[in-house]
Design brief:
six-stranded parallel β-sheet, about 290 residues, binds nicotinamide-adenine-dinucleotide, two-stranded antiparallel sheet, globular, 11 helices
Length: about 290
């Protein structure tokens, strides 16, 4: 079968393949032999489970894997798991060389938009980890590009697919708790990410397994420092992350926005509301006061 699936057949296949598209309710395939040819960018950390969950479907072929670190916890492990997949350390080369149906993007946040946009512009369906992008502008660009390309996209806030989440949202829609006047949303424990913009001094020797320039990608250049950026700890730094809000806001504010139908913030509207309501910004982080309350 052609590696180019239509939007319709992709949706059908993806639903059964475990991409978890929550609104799709069909297992119908164009043919029993339909396969989604999937590429994965960033296969350590969360990327590992994204790849493994997706690969559970007999209708998925993990065709290409890419990671800037070829050590055992990153590309090494994925290559062992999928020995037939082609290996890359640069996602641009992967996109240039491979004929794929879909791409999974599980890199640190600052690289979501460049990788996802390049894939979408090539007509690939994209599953991209949360937060979708590093800036609001990037999110808007991606949204328009996906619409234009007619591809299927999904962000990796997986709780949207959970029964508990969907039931709670439905209960609010059904009026079970009456009119919602105020929402409190929080994360337990102390804030984990410092989100700082100043940089530590100096650099450390680069491990042989790491392609540092590829890791930096579109971020401003800085020397490699052991253990404070790659892996995982990049969340502390503005150049790569949006700190605690970027890391968890999309999880814990998502059911709020689904339940009460919040749409994207409108700056002008926001200013008007602020003028009308007094200062709506005095609430603590993560608390949302509804317009008119
Ligand atoms: N949905 C969830 O519950 C959930 C949970 C954890 C992380 N995440 C998201 O997943 C993403 C990755 O987070 P993480 O904790 O796994 O980070 P991490 O740093 O632990 O892992 C990132 C992986 O991507 C690789 N990588 C980095 N830059 C790359 C590039 N340019 N090209 C190819 N590979 C690259 C790294 O080597 C590593 O293997 C983040 O966007 C994060 O917000 C989502």
């Amino acid at each position: 079968m052609s590696h180019r699936l239509t939007r319709r057949t992709f949706i059908q296949s993806a639903a059964a393949a475990g991409f978890g598209l929550p609104l799709i309710r069909t297992n119908a395939f164009a043919s029993e032999n339909d396969q989604l040819h999937v590429g994965c960018v960033g296969v350590g950390g969360k990327g590992w489970s994204d790849m493994m969950e997706t690969a559970k479907s007999p209708h998925v072929t993990i065709q290409a894997i890419c990671d800037i670190d070829d050590s055992a916890n990153h590309l090494g492990r994925a290559a062992e798991q999928f020995p037939k997949a082609t290996k890359y350390s640069d996602w641009r080369t992967l996109l240039d060389k491979e004929k794929l149906d879909a791409l999974i993007v599980s890199t640190p946040d600052h690289m979501h938009a460049p990788v996802a946009l390049s894939a979408i512009e090539r007509g690939l369906h994209v599953y991209c980890q949360k937060p979708l992008t590093h800036t609001v502008h990037e999110a808007r660009v991606l949204t328009n590009a996906a619409k234009k390309a007619g591809v299927v996209t999904q962000m990796g806030n997986q709780i949207q697919a959970y029964a508990e989440y969907r039931s709670a949202v439905q209960l609010v829609h059904d009026g079970a708790i009456g009119k919602v006047k105020e929402v409190f949303s929080w994360q337990s424990g102390s804030p984990r990410w410092r989100i700082v913009s100043d940089r530590p001094e100096g650099g450390d020797p680069l491990p042989k397994s790491v392609k540092w320039n590829n890791w930096l990608g579109v971020a401003p250049k800085r020397p490699y420092k052991k253990e404070i950026y790659h892996p995982f700890s990049w969340r502390d730094w503005q150049d790569f992350s949006n700190g605690q809000l970027g890391d968890f806001g999309c999880h814990i504010l998502d059911p709020v926005s689904m339940a009460i139908g919040l749409t994207a913030p409108d700056i002008d509207q926001g200013r008007r509301s602020t003028d009308q309501l007094g200062n709506v910004d005095t609430l603590g982080a993560g608390q949302v006061r509804l317009p008119g309350q």
